Give the backbone structure.
Amino acid sequence: MEVGVVGLGSMGFAMASHILAAGHELTVYNRTEEKAHPLMEEGATFSHDPSGAAQGDVVITMLSDDFAVESVVFGNGEQEGFLAHQSPNCIHVSMSTIGVGLVKRMQSASEDQHKSFISAPVMGRPDVAKRGELVVMASGDKALIEKCQPVFDAIGRVTHNVGDCPTQAAVVKLAANFMLSSMIETLGEAFALVRKNGADHHKFLEIMAKDFFKSPIYEKYGAIIANERFGGSAFTVSLQEKDTRLAVAAAIESKVPMPILFAVENAFLSSIGQGKGDMDPCAIAQLAAENAGLS
Ligand SMILES: NC(=O)c1ccc[n+]([C@@H]2O[C@H](COP(=O)([O-])OP(=O)(O)OC[C@H]3O[C@@H](n4cnc5c(N)ncnc54)[C@H](OP(=O)(O)O)[C@@H]3O)[C@@H](O)[C@H]2O)c1
């Protein structure tokens, strides 16, 4: 297939590498051109504007946030967006973690202009993307999702179809991230209680992750907190706060009270306020320890 990837950050670059390795023809666009050089050495074509990547069968957007996605799809003062120039045969697959409102806007603008659009955000950190083992959660027209399956197979270990409207995958992704964030918060609070009473939080984690919950996710995130490995992560407090804020907006819009979500959002804001925005999201666990008077 002819595939375009717009956005070569930690996630987009790894995904693009797998798409190329799976034998697809790849055209990439990134605001900072240098990031595309290793892919160009492997045979990818660089386009100097986003529309060049939207002329094949599929164009993936994998950008930081709503502002970045809006800029490349609808344009900004300096550059035209790709939507107006997207080939009628090309399916836009929005894979960034963005707000439900923007997904709705792209869906409606695509319909107005007779362009194809689906949403397919992913679960998995950049290390998982590098291994080609992302979990893809897609929604939109079933036939369009099926057409994109070879691309999803290249980047992920599984694709879940979560509905026939593009906004549904965006909501599912925000709900999944909320569960991850609240798990980090509860681990931090539980560790603080255990430590304050002189018990071993490593042992506590072993019981919870390996025995009680039997969950590799608890094991992975619990180990980061227990060993205080909060630095050098491509997945950060700031990125996770952005996702939590989008979930808060979705909760307000849907009139769904989510008290734990709002508490977790506050925890991320406190961490950012303390200058920890670039640390691993597990750094919010330090707040529970500090509040308990632990070092
Ligand atoms: N990191 C994770 O663990 C993770 C996991 C799952 C999902 N996600 C989601 O995946 C998306 C990408 O994350 P990432 O970790 O790859 O982010 P990243 O490494 O920070 O990369 C961000 C990308 O967006 C581009 N960009 C930012 N602002 C832009 C603008 N105004 N105009 C055009 N391009 C712009 C950057 O271009 P430059 O190279 O020019 O800066 C870069 O290509 C996000 O929505 C994130 O929430 C991330």
Observations:
- The longest strand covers residues 156-161.
- Residues 71 and 81 are 6 Å apart (CA to CA).
- The chain has twelve helices and nine strands.
